[in-house]
């Protein structure tokens, strides 16, 4: 018997080949059930998987439609311009929410990059990025208190780290070497980003330094929803 994943694979191939256009209504569950000679529940599960993967969406009482993936946001991953400025320059309705500022446990890689030891305090500041009121990315900055003594008190209100650095006399930034990886979301990430467990996340890990003084400002981890962007490097 044909299983739901085979149907998912074939539907993805049909969408990518152009058999189904963007915003086109897909066959009903009954139509596909007859085509594949499977119970209707199998098609329903296949459509649920396609929706979780970001290929289709449903309209109550109207059926399932191909998602317009051209509406994904183009994003250049490199460069020294803040995420906020990139979104503003492209004209997207954009919002940042500060969601946490807390002392982080010792992590050898992060602490070494920041140039601090186990006895120093490092805080992680999390900002949720939203476009059209939809969560698209989680930015986490690891900052040493020895560099920014007021970070514990002010970190919960920071929505732009670049603005914060400017106010403290740092104005010319450069990025450290970056690492890209792909992962599936944890429970926390699913809740914060509003995505399913099947949506891969692109993780960009890097750092930010002041070009003038060479001061290490932060170690950065940015988690992007892969279904919301097209990426340039």
Automatic annotation (TrEMBL):
One of its GO terms (biological process) is negative regulation of DNA-templated transcription. One of its GO terms (molecular function) is DNA binding. It comes from Neobacillus bataviensis LMG 21833. This is GntR family transcriptional regulator. The keyword Transcription applies. Keywords: DNA-binding, Transcription, Transcription regulation. Pfam families: GntR, UTRA. PANTHER family: MANNOSYL-D-GLYCERATE TRANSPORT/METABOLISM SYSTEM REPRESSOR MNGR-RELATED, MANNOSYL-D-GLYCERATE TRANSPORT_METABOLISM SYSTEM REPRESSOR MNGR-RELATED. It comes from the Bacteria. Residues 1-69 form the HTH gntR-type domain. CDD domains: WHTH_GntR (cd07377).
């Amino acid at each position: 018997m044909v299983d739901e994943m085979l149907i998912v694979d074939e539907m993805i191939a049909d969408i990518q080949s152009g058999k189904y256009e963007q915003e086109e209504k897909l066959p009903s569950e009954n139509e596909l059930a007859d085509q594949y000679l499977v119970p209707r529940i199998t098609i329903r599960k296949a459509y649920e998987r396609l929706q979780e993967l970001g290929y289709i969406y449903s309209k109550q009482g109207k059926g399932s439609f191909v998602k317009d993936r051209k509406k994904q946001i183009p994003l250049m991953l490199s460069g020294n311009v803040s995420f906020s400025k990139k979104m503003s320059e492209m004209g997207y309705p954009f919002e940042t929410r500060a969601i946490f500022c807390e002392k982080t446990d010792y992590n050898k890689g992060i602490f070494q990059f920041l140039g601090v030891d186990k006895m120093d305090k490092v805080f992680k500041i999390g900002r949720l990025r939203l476009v059209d009121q939809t969560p698209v990315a989680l930015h986490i900055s690891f900052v040493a208190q020895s560099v920014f003594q007021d970070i514990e008190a002010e970190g919960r209100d920071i929505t732009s780290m670049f603005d914060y650095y400017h106010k403290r006399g740092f104005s010319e930034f450069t990025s450290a070497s970056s690492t890209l990886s792909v992962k599936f979301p944890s429970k926390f990430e699913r809740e914060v980003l509003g995505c399913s467990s099947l949506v891969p996340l692109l993780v960009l890990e890097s750092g930010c330094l002041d070009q003038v003084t060479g001061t290490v400002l932060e170690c950065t981890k940015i988690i992007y929803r892969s279904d919301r962007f097209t990426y340039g490097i």
